[in-house]
Amino acid sequence: MVESCFIDLGTTAWALDRGRRGPLAVLTRRHGVLSPYDDVPAGSPPEAITRALGNLDADVLLLRAIPAESVLLQVPSILRLAHRTQASWSLDLRAYADANAWVASRSKGRRRSLRKGLKALGPGVRFEALEDRATRMGAIQHAIGLKRAWLEERGMFSRTFSSPAFRASLVERWSEPDPLLPVYRLAARGQTVAIELGDIRDGVHRAYMGAFDPRYDGAGVVMTVEAVRAAFERGLDTYDLLPPETDFKSSWMDQRHDVYSAIVPLSAAGRLAAPALRDGPTLAKRAVRFGEKLACDFASERSRAS
Q1: Rounded distance, CA 129 to CA 136, Å?
Q2: Cβ–Cβ under 8 Å, residues 24 and 59
Q3: What strand order describes the sheet that includes 83-92?
Q4: Whole-angstrom Cα distance, residue 86 to residue 38?
Q5: Could you tell me which of 289, 206, 267 has the C-alpha nearest to residue 240?
Q6: Concatenated DSSP letters for 146-189?
């Protein structure tokens, strides 16, 4: 069972979830807070965080994605345990006159991929921000279906995205019309081919979730370019594609940001379990890849023997 708790930091409060991993009481990012990062509210003093860590009723604090600029990395007990685990890419919109200037600055290969995508989608490509609740809700459900199919096709598992509660949170947050929570839809040939859920705060558009129909080549790149164009038109400062880092993101964006992870033990049991919590996901992925290789090799041997 998971329960919400609020850690008093003096001028702010840090919302966390308290649950169990076997015998351990574990604190994690609050599930209902749809953020890609582990962070405290703006203005939280490092000294208050240090004091709070000494009084938390738990064994371990799991911080899987700390942005480089977070005040959490000014807390000595967190900083000494933090290590870079991933990165994100964003675009500084202020560096370009407009969206056309940005596209022109990209490599020939990227520009070619955009032209190819537009050609594949055919005439009448339509990009729009959905404004009524029913249409937004339908688009969100469609995006969830596309995302799940994409993950399953690649044999990938997302603990977050596999959670029904997380998917329900997406619908709850983005279904109500809100200009700061845009739901973008790209349509071609009378079909929805790509959807993006955005989150706009402090001059930054965060591309929280994108999904595209794999039957339509180029839908993903055309959606990204049109969403960036919309950010330019809004007069925003930054368009952020968020973690994880991919070649696609690095080729279209221009700013790289490190993201850190820290497993913070809060008790003797937590100190014993911290190495397993830190390395367990990586070892599990290696085991899966090793198993897949063995299965592939075994199949090849059987094929040759027959």
Answers
A1: 9
A2: yes
A3: 3-8, 13-21, 24-29, 60-67, 255-265, 83-92, 238-240, 204-212, 191-201, 183-188, 126-129
A4: 13
A5: 206
A6: HHHHHHHHTT---TTTT-HHHHHHHHHHHSS--TTS-EEEEEET
- 191 contact partners, CB below 8 Å, separation of at least 6: 213, 216
Q: Comparing C-alpha atoms, which of 43, 51, 53, 50 is closest to residue 16?
A: 53
User: Each residue of 67-104: pLDDT tens digit?
Assistant: 999 999 999 999 999 999 999 999 999 999 999 999 99
How many alpha carbons lie under 13 Å from residue 15 in its C-beta half-sphere? Answer: 10
Q: Where in the chain is the domain with CATH 3.40.630.30?
A: 88-257
Contact 194, 211 (CB under 8 A): yes
User: Region 120-128: what's the mean pLDDT?
Assistant: 94
- Bridge partner list, 84: 260
Cβ proximity of 200 and 177 under 8 Å: no
Query: Residue 256: its pLDDT value, please?
Result: 96
pTM of the model: 0.81
Interval 138-166: pLDDT, tens: 999 999 999 888 888 877 767 667 778 78
**Identity of the residue numbered 296:** C
Residue 133, classed as helix, strand or coil, is: helix
Residue 209 tokens, joined: 């979730």
Give the CATH superfamily of 88-257. Gcn5-related N-acetyltransferase (GNAT) (3.40.630.30)
Q: Which of 92, 51, 44, 52 is nearest to 71 (CA)?
A: 44
Burial class (CB in 10 A: 0-12, 13-18, 19+), 1: exposed
Tens digit of pLDDT for each residue in 176-190? 999 999 999 999 999
